[in-house]
Amino acid sequence: MSNTINAVTDSATAADKLWMELHGAPGGTSAELAEQAGIGGSTARKLLAALECNGAAIRTAGESDGSARRPADRWWPEIAPADSDTTGGADAVGEPATAADTAQEAEDAPGTYPGRG
Fold first, then answer.
1. With the C-alpha atoms ordered 35, 53, 14, 42, is the resulting torsion angle positive or negative?
2. 84 domain-assigned
């Protein structure tokens, strides 16, 4: 790894690292993405849930292998259609969430998870 890449990854937040891994290895489990990003599993799960709430990530149910254990869900980045305007120009309705936005939302809402009352 070059010194430039090391400098970038050393200063990246957990959300940034996870975001890069989600795009670099789509379809990974939260545990796989956490390990590849070098962050904790709990942090990855919270950030992925926040990304899902923002519409930036998609969760697909894991496929059962016949065992009693619940299979791990797989995570994918939400890709905007090629013809959509995500430039953030004056006429844009909203701007896409960034990894920093997602990290702040995850910190602001501890203990809240999508789909749980």
1. negative
2. no
